[in-house]
Write a sequence for this structure.
């Protein structure tokens, strides 16, 4: 099972974060970013929070389909390796 966020911005970060956390709690082992069309630095915070939640639940979370802009942000913030994207 995967979670497919479409937006990860400051404006919708709380709602997107909660949906992702619910998906992980429900057994999702993948965050698929291929449908992501809006994002900013809030995406890094959400991705890190989802990674922590999955690790706490003993889930090996995969983050797939990251657009090049998300990959660039992860590299800029030094979290690409941690997020494994």
């Amino acid at each position: 099972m995967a979670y497919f966020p479409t937006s990860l911005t400051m404006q919708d970060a709380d709602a997107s974060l909660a949906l992702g956390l619910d998906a992980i709690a429900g057994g999702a082992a993948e965050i698929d970013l291929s449908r992501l069309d809006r994002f900013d630095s809030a995406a890094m915070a959400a991705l890190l929070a989802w990674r922590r939640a999955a690790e706490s639940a003993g889930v090996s979370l995969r983050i797939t389909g990251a657009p090049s802009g998300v990959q660039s942000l992860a590299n800029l913030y030094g979290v690409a390796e941690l997020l494994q994207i």
In short: The helical segments are 13-25, 42-56, 68-77, 80-83. The first helix runs from residue 13 to 25. The two ends are 18 Å apart (CA to CA).
